[in-house]
Task: structure prediction
Amino acid sequence: MKPTLRIGTRGSALALAQATLVQQQIQDRYPQIAVDLEIIKTTGDKIQDVPLAKIGGKGLFTKEIELAILAGEVDLGVHSMKDVPTEVPEGLVIGITTSREDPRDAFISRKYQALEEVPPGGRLGTGSLRRRAQLLNLRPDLEIVPLRGNVDTRLRKLVAENLDAVILATAGLRRLGRAEEITAVIPAEVMVPAIGQGALGLEYRQDDEETRDILAFLDDPATRVAVAAERAFLARLEGGCQVPIAAYGELQEGTVVLDGLIGDLNGSRIFRDRIAGDPAEAAALGRRLAERLLARGGAQILSEVYGRSFR
Result:
């Protein structure tokens, strides 16, 4: 067994908290292995003053870590699955999906106890087009203020920019030990979470069987199946951060239940549906749900956003 395992991670507080969680679990299981963290700066970390939707491209928070894995500089990367493109570079595999933290979005306010209490004209901060579309669909009377930066930065802007509320991921706040900041958790029925939100993926070289075997105990089959359905939905829609797409899968009594959503940038059109089926067919279910929403009007929205005909 390897004497040392090197984990590549971003340097943000949340990324470090997630990597440290994995590090501790491995060390608890295999005390004879030294597990080191290697901080790697990604493109998404370097560009903090531009909305993600305007940067474009894929792998903004993963590419540099993946290059380090391929080069043998680290053995694995710990990723938030919501940041991972649906296509993984040749030679790599995301072979482990850990147990999912709460995937729902969090409403954070110093003035109000719930989204419905915010008065008309209220200012809500978010950097996510997915959240923006669903918020404006629910509350077209609100002003959505673009927000970038880490969790600390966004929480500071809540006060510094006199916002009525900000929307962040519940999972991130819980992993940072800041769950007390959450005013209310938004039900998934009200706001469909981001694809992969709350789940961590461990990426390593496809031919590195030793690392695979060490990490195997961390894999959570229920989370893996749910995220596989979500990511198949995303892949069929060729989605990225430039379009409001959301999906949330759950394993319920041996059945995969998947909610999916396509919206336009201003939330005036939202197409949403649900599908359920055999966990062995998770990816097929995701693609089938995508086809349903495309047929109902999602294809027109994607054609407008992508600037080309989408089928």
